[in-house]
Design brief:
There is one protein chain. This protein is mainly alpha-helical and 103 residues long. It has one domain (2-99). It has helices at residues 2-17, 27-37, 39-46, 52-55, 64-77, 84-99. α2 packs across α6 and α5 (64-77) packs across α6 (84-99).
């Protein structure tokens, strides 16, 4: 019985390690927030299509943790005033659309 419980616990932990990093975020809401708060600023910074910031070869975001940190940095420094759940919505959308981080 104890071995079975330990095995199930191990499977659960392994499953969480491979889980989508921003599963609690809503990508539909995230897309709307990116379009409202991010793309125009990125376009001013880079000219033209603001979404190029996510796909350029020298982009800063290399991990799911750095993606969330960058979103939070922009939110704070630019006083966007998104709530934490909205930051996760944005992270989920950007991850699904551009980055595909697994954890």
């Amino acid at each position: 019985m104890l071995k079975s419980f330990g095995f199930l616990l191990l499977l659960m932990i392994a499953g969480m390690a491979q889980a989508e990093p921003f599963a609690q975020g809503d990508p539909v809401k995230g897309k709307a927030l990116v379009e409202k708060n991010c793309i125009s600023c990125h376009a001013r910074m880079l000219g033209g299509d603001g979404s190029i910031i996510y796909t350029r070869p020298d982009h800063k975001v290399k991990t799911s943790a750095s993606l969330l940190a960058q979103i939070r940095s922009c939110n704070t420094n630019l006083d966007v005033q998104m709530f934490e759940d909205e930051e996760l919505d944005v992270a989920n959308y950007l991850n699904k659309t551009y980055y595909q981080f697994e954890k």
